[in-house]
Amino acid sequence: MMLFDEPFASLDQNLRVQLREQVAQVLDSTNTPALFVTHDPREALALGDRIAVMRAGQIEQVGVPEEIYRHPLTMFVASFMDEANFLSITKDGSGWSTVLGAVDQSSEGHFVAMVRPNDVAFVSDDSGDAKIQRCDYAGSHWLLRVRLRTGDEVVVLAEPDSRATVGDRGNLGLRPGAKQVVVRQS
Q1: Distance (Å, rounded) from C-alpha 70 to C-alpha 72?
Q2: Domain 83-185 fold
Q3: 95 pLDDT tier (thresholds 50, 70, 90)
Q4: For labelling alongside 98, which of 10, 21, 22, 53 has CA 20 to 30 A away?
């Protein structure tokens, strides 16, 4: 068993990725179990067969990388792993919904819906309910910060060739196959 405590923390990004891949390859080829302590969620997702997310010395959630990322149990876990939108859940007739549509919610309580920016689409429409407040270029994509007429703010991941600009109006929706995940407020 090998223990690694923030082994790549002080390295520049390129060296960090290169060394991380080499260490993972050696551990796999020698079938050596390892425990990594890291504050870098990308590192945890890349290296971990199982991940434990801790907060103030307590374990918040344990699971496989995709489960931790796609189905976090709390707002803390969701926002620690990556950028996340948190939306209020309201009762509407026979079910529960957010500004992006229906959610699976079985009881009232301290819950919100979480959706990742890459699961939300912005569709231009001059009479739409959403207005772009900010556009941040990130190389492989744009992050659009969008405000709805309800006052809710949602971050949307847009393609690198997006022509969206600050002030554009449109509508938001979930991308095909995307779901809102109900998480505990934390």
Answers
A1: 6
A2: OB fold (Dihydrolipoamide Acetyltransferase, E2P) (2.40.50)
A3: confident
A4: 53
